[in-house]
Amino acid sequence: MRVITKIHDMVEACNIAPRPLGLVPTMGALHKGHQSLFQKARESNRSVVVSVFVNPVQFASQADFESYPRDMEKDLEFLGACGVDLVFCPSQTEMFPIGMESRVNVGGIGERIEGKLRPGHFEGVATIVCKLFNVTRADRVYFGQKDAQQNLVIKHAISDLNYAVKMFVVPTVRGKDGLAYSSRNASLTAMQRKKAGIIYEALLTAKKLFDSGEFDSEKLRNEAKRVIGLEPVISRIEYVSIADLVTLEELVTINRSALISVALWIGGTRLIDNLILSH
Ligand code: AMP
């Protein structure tokens, strides 16, 4: 496994790497969710490239950026065990040198749900991912269903900007209690972690209601909120959204496939999750 920190070296390494080349962008603090993406990439590519970069331009606050979990040493060990070929872990100034002000904005899809609460977030995401496409010229790229809106943003960027890369979405990997693996879970106390399975339980409860024929999104949202409300460890619900699976426009009646997604706080930790409601 080669670990590369400079764009120039990464371009050269990707130029000579056997093709097809599969890319998995991450922000590190790696876990089993990331691992399933690496495995998927390993199955069908001759070269697997993983980027580990905590992207400053997708964070709204400096405090959130600084407190994001980081453990490069452990990540490199993990990546070695996963059979990754190239790791790209550039510095902040390597990716965003002073004067680099270009941004990729994909419009409406990045302004709904999460984007409404975190202005500029998806612009930051699309910018870094497009930079990674340009540096690696990846044939395939792998993302997790956990970040459903991010996937739609990248899908638009790939199509709008004519990238040749093929995108794959891998199902969300969950713990025994249903909590989605997330780097941010590391910030939960043992007691908070024990109770956090309620997020999945709430989504599942709403999904079961939908599967039994209830298509009124307000009823589903209220049911999800009720279940979350049973657990006092959840300090604040930011949103429960039920939106069109393609456009992410909020639905009053769920008359087509939809995404139910939540964002909430457990103490100082913000967690997101989602499920698909398929018609
Ligand atoms: P992150 O490091 O959090 O930016 O995530 C990097 C990639 O891993 C993204 O495509 C995420 O959607 C994906 N990912 C994160 N958590 C999970 C999970 N629990 N299951 C599957 N994919 C995940």
Describe the 3D structure.
With 279 residues, the protein is α/β, with parallel strands linked by helices. It folds into 2 domains: 169 residues, Rossmann fold (3-Layer(aba) Sandwich), CATH 3.40.50.620; 95 residues, Pantoate--beta-alanine Ligase, Chain: A,domain 2. It is built from 11 helices and 9 strands. It has a 6-stranded parallel beta sheet with strand order 1-4-3-2-5-6, sandwiched between helices. A 3-stranded antiparallel beta sheet has the order 7-8-9, covered by helices on one side. Helix 7 crosses helix 8 and helix 10 runs antiparallel to helix 11. The N and C termini lie far apart (44 Å). The relative contact order is 0.13. It binds adenosine monophosphate. Adenosine monophosphate binds next to helix 2 and strand 5.
Regarding quaternary structure, what we see is single chain
Q: What is the correct CATH architecture of the largest domain?
A: 3-Layer(aba) Sandwich
Overall tally of structural domains: 2
CATH topology of the largest domain: Rossmann fold
> What is the CATH class of the largest domain?
Alpha Beta
Bound molecules: adenosine monophosphate
Tally of DSSP β-strands: 9
- Give the CA-based shape: globular
Strand content: 15-25%
Low-confidence stretches: none
Name the CATH superfamily assignment of the largest domain.
HUPs
Radius of gyration: 19 Å
Residue-averaged pLDDT:
98
Separation of the first and last Cα atoms:
44 Å
Largest sheet: 6 strands, parallel
Main sheet: strand order? 1-4-3-2-5-6
Q: Which class of secondary structure composition applies to the elements? A: alpha/beta
The level of helicity is 25-40%
SSE succession: EHEHEHHEHHHEHEHHHEEE
Number of helices: 11
